[in-house]
Design goal:
It contains one helix and 14 strands; from the N terminus they run H-E-E-E-E-E-E-E-E-E-E-E-E-E-E. The strands form two sheets. The protein has a twelve-stranded antiparallel β-barrel. The protein is mostly beta strands and 294 residues long. It has one domain: Porin, CATH 2.40.160. Helix content is 6%, strand content 63%. Keywords: Signal. This is DUF3078 domain-containing protein.
């Protein structure tokens, strides 16, 4: 796990060096893809090596629509990810991924440099219910709803400075970022609820306000023919409470294209948010499937 993390961080650093200057184009530029990934492991009753049959799938949407006119630039990105897995003899189908995110950054170029005055907005939530799993007194699997659509939901916005070399390599720094965390108050109700236990939200409340600094970076480059690596890094420090505990959200997506419709994807994501869990959350997805680019 640690070796993979270091590999992606090295690749991100390499991307800084390898990114090439592109001649900016006026008007709208649009690019996106939809991927359907599949994975399966099957064993018959006589298999002696151990293992449990399972299958899973993941669907993802990544769409960019950017605009440039003179010294004005407006970048927009939509990300949608949802995955399920089913293990034989396990009572419930479980999620492997669930993310819905929109980011918009407006920038005004400073003379002829790569720097822009900027204002960004980011909204992030999930599609479906999320559960924690356990066992009852009889050993049966139980599940308890912990999250659902818009619980939690994160809204960030603020002014800053954008450094943009091209659409595939940019960093936005916003030192005065407002962040709202929205939740369903049913999760923060009850006599035994402790303030801040559910994504930092106090008892009986449905939202939390934070003010801090954010850094959002994106780098996409080609490792070799038909092999691309996209890196997204989001950092946030809350001035109002424990500013030293920086929230981290890094995603690396390695795409190995077979042809126009078939590809293999490896996704690595690492999240640290001490309001959710005081430890790193790690997700890895590896699969082959169908990809449609538009």
């Amino acid at each position: 796990m640690k070796k993979r993390s270091l590999l992606f961080l090295l690749a991100l650093t390499t991307g800084v060096v390898m990114a090439q200057e592109d001649e900016p184009k006026e008007g709208w530029t649009k690019e996106g893809n939809i991927s359907l990934l599949f994975n399966q492991a099957a064993f018959n009753a006589e298999w002696q090596g151990g293992g449990t049959s399972n299958y899973g799938g993941n669907i993802s949407l990544n769409y960019d629509f950017n605009y440039r006119k003179g010294d004005l630039t407006w970048d927009n990105k939509i990300i949608g990810d949802f995955g399920l897995t089913k293990v034989k003899d396990q009572e419930f189908t479980r999620k492997t991924n669930d993310r819905l995110e929109f980011t918009s950054t407006l920038g005004k170029q400073i003379e002829e440099s790569n720097w822009y005055y900027s204002f960004f907005t980011n909204m992030r939530t999930q599609f479906a219910k999320g559960y924690t799993y356990g066992e009852d007194a009889d050993g049966n699997t139980t599940r308890t709803e912990r999250t659902h659509f818009f619980s939690p939901a994160y809204l960030q916005f603020g002014p800053g400075m954008l450094w943009k070399k091209n659409d595939n390599f940019k960093v936005n720094i916003a030192p005065a970022t407002a962040r709202f965390i929205f939740v369903d108050p049913s999760f923060t109700s009850g006599a035994d609820y402790v303030d801040g236990k559910y994504f930092g939200v106090d008892a009986g409340k449905s939202s939390r306000f934070e003010l801090g600094a954010s850094v959002n970076a994106f780098a996409k480059f080609t490792l070799m023919e038909n092999v691309t690596l996209s890196n997204t890094l989001n950092l946030y420090s809350n001035y109002l409470e424990d500013p030293q505990n920086v929230d981290i959200d890094y995603t690396g997506n390695l795409v190995m294209k077979v042809n126009d419709f078939i590809s293999t994807n490896f996704i690595f994501q690492a999240i640290y948010d001490d309001n959710a869990v005081g430890a790193f959350q790690i997700r890895e997805v590896l699969g082959a499937g169908l990809t449609y680019t538009f």
